[in-house]
Amino acid sequence: MLTTASDIEVLTRFGRALADPIRCRILLTLRHAPAHPADLADALGISRTRLSNHLACLRDCGLVVTTPVGRRTRYELADERLGHALDDLRTAIVAVVADRTCPDAEEKGCC
């Protein structure tokens, strides 16, 4: 099977989303259940403004979607398979090299 430019772009987008610890925490939190931004900000201990920027990035990457609930907006993973993929990645990486760090860990970027 040949790898297409679309496959590479999708994985690159996913990698950029995971490149930031706050976005990782958001995705890992949303894998359990949808949440409202105020609840996410409180759970993660970050400001609502900072959270909003990260949610916008994840939304633009296509990893989370919003659902209006009355006057509030609820966020959830765009596809339940993302939660499984996050769990698989987390456990696979821990199993392979738990004692290593990424040389590019200081670089930040958004989707």
From TrEMBL:
Classification via PROSITE patterns: HTH_ARSR_2
SMART domains, alphabetized: HTH_ARSR
Lyase is among the record's keywords: no
Keywords of this entry: Cadmium, DNA-binding, Metal-binding, Transcription, Transcription regulation
Pfam families: HTH_5
GO biological process, one term: response to cadmium ion
Record keyword Transcription regulation present: yes
GO MF annotation, one: DNA-binding transcription factor activity
Ranges for domain HTH arsR-type: 3-100
Database matches in NCBIfam families: HTH_metalloreg
PANTHER family linked: HTH-TYPE TRANSCRIPTIONAL REGULATOR CMTR (PTHR39168:SF2), TRANSCRIPTIONAL REGULATOR-RELATED (PTHR39168)
Subunit-structure text: Homodimer.
Biological role: Metal-responsive transcriptional repressor for the cmt operon. Binding of cadmium or lead causes the repressor to dissociate from the DNA.
Protein name: HTH-type transcriptional regulator CmtR
Record organism: Streptomyces minutiscleroticus
Native organism taxonomy: Bacteria, Bacillati, Actinomycetota, Actinomycetes, Kitasatosporales
